[in-house]
Specification:
The protein is α+β, with helices and mostly antiparallel strands. The chain has a single domain (about 40-260), classed as Nuclear Transport Factor 2, Chain: A, CATH 3.10.450. It is built from eight helices and eight strands. The chain has helices at about 1-20, 30-35, 45-60, 60-65, 95-105, 205, 215-220, 250-260, and strands spanning about 70-75, 90-95, 115-120, 130, 140-155, 160-170, 190-200, 250. Strands 1, 2, 3, 4, 5, 6, 7 and 8 form an eight-stranded mixed beta sheet that branches.
Length: about 260
């Protein structure tokens, strides 16, 4: 009987050692299947506000997304990206960017919402002085990172975006903070005030033309229609690419245009 108790105790000890030594419930490969919530990073540095951006897209969290974009936020299309043609006079503002994200994250637009989003940025983010004229690096920084974005949607489509993104970030005591957030200047928080897309120079620009890609490009530029009650002229949405065995490679600008309405 004593031998049996010793054997049982040894087995329990081995099991506990295995749990403590090998199992990490916060491992990204495990957390999505166990339902364990991984909290968002605190945007208390230029690097961490970009990590929070990454977290927002992975978790499709529109509420947190509202908290990291300044009131004067702008998304800037890559030079030569035809998706941005009709946004020249009506740029992608904070309001429009949040609407695009909402359509993609939870639905409500003309394209099917995502069922999964996998976004990978550089493992190490380096903050540099803001290269825009008149910006003091004490309050304004710039971060360039590679991006690898894979999106699967409810209608079976899959989109792949690769290249770079250039983020301009501002400290909270110099940022134009949206009134709806109900917070004041804060030197311990950072926000994103501009995002320059540089994914057109990546694989999206050189990818072969899969089934449906011609349809997507043919819709660019897509003409204006009647002016809405709010005074903004809504645009005809870009038709999504047909479902293919391979992901449809595109720029982030084209993704924004696809989910704008």
């Amino acid at each position: 009987m004593r031998i049996r108790h010793i054997a049982c105790a040894g087995l329990v000890a081995l099991l506990m050692l295995g749990v403590s030594g090998c199992f990490n419930p916060f491992d990204p490969r495990i957390a999505p299947t166990t339902g364990i919530y991984v909290p968002p990073p605190t945007p208390n540095s230029p690097q961490n506000v970009i990590r929070l951006f990454e977290w927002v897209w992975k978790n499709r969290d529109i509420t947190v997304y509202k908290e990291i974009l300044t009131d004067d936020f702008r998304f800037i299309f890559a030079l030569g990206d035809s998706a941005g043609n009709l946004f020249r006079e009506d740029p992608v503002t904070r309001e429009m960017e949040l609407n695009i994200a909402r359509n993609l994250f939870v639905g409500g637009g003309s394209a099917a919402p995502a069922t999964s989003i996998v976004l990978v940025l550089d493992p190490t983010l380096r903050a540099l002085p803001d290269s825009r004229p008149g910006k003091n690096p004490r309050w304004h920084n710039e971060i360039v990172t590679s991006v690898d974005l894979n999106i699967k949607t409810e209608d079976g489509a899959e989109y792949r975006i690769m290249g770079n993104a250039r983020f301009f970030v501002v400290r909270g005591d110099s940022a134009l903070i949206p009134k709806e957030l109900g917070v004041g200047p804060d030197s311990t928080r950072w926000y994103i005030d501009q995002w320059h897309d540089e994914t057109l120079q990546g694989s999206a620009a050189m990818a072969p033309d899969p089934a449906g890609a011609g349809q997507l490009r043919a819709a660019l530029p897509f003409g204006r229609v009647t002016v809405s009650a709010a005074g903004r002229a809504p645009r005809r949405p870009i038709a999504p690419a047909a479902v293919t065995a391979q992901p449809f490679e595109m720029s982030w600008g084209k993704l924004n245009a696809l989910y704008a309405y």
